[in-house]
Design brief:
128 residues; mainly alpha; 77% helix
């Protein structure tokens, strides 16, 4: 039987990929500069659920190895890597607001990670 965290991870990954594809194809990131904020949030949710899903392959999510700190640290690592990737590929940014935008992106990713972690933990308890 497929675990609930796996289903939620799959759903959030498909939503994230679909929204990102539409935003790129329709140039929505450039029309609506605020659009990356909910996308970073959804990305944080997806990464946290993916992390819990991956770890759930090797043990039960009720296990204490699935700590809050490890999940959020992983989410922040992925979010930071994404921000570096954006700089490397040359995503344009406002000259005077790069630090503020990057900080907000990381905060939204972390908040999404919190939501993903707590939802993932809650639904994993239902599977037991």
């Amino acid at each position: 039987m497929i675990k609930s965290t796996t289903l939620l991870f799959g759903l959030s990954a498909v939503m994230l990929a679909g929204f990102h594809y539409l935003a790129l194809e329709l140039h929505l990131y450039w029309l609506y500069l605020w659009l990356d904020i909910p996308m970073h949030f959804l990305g944080g949710v997806t990464v946290a659920l993916g992390y819990l899903t991956f770890l759930g392959l090797f043990s039960n999510l009720a296990d204490k190895n699935f700590t809050f700190t490890r999940t959020i640290t992983f989410v922040l690592l992925v979010a930071t890597s994404w921000e570096i990737f954006e700089v490397v590929i040359g995503i344009p940014f406002e000259e005077g607001n790069y630090v503020g935008d990057t900080t907000l992106d990381l905060i939204m990713g972390a908040l999404g990670g919190l939501v993903g972690y707590f939802v993932g933990r809650r639904v994993s308890q239902l599977d037991i």
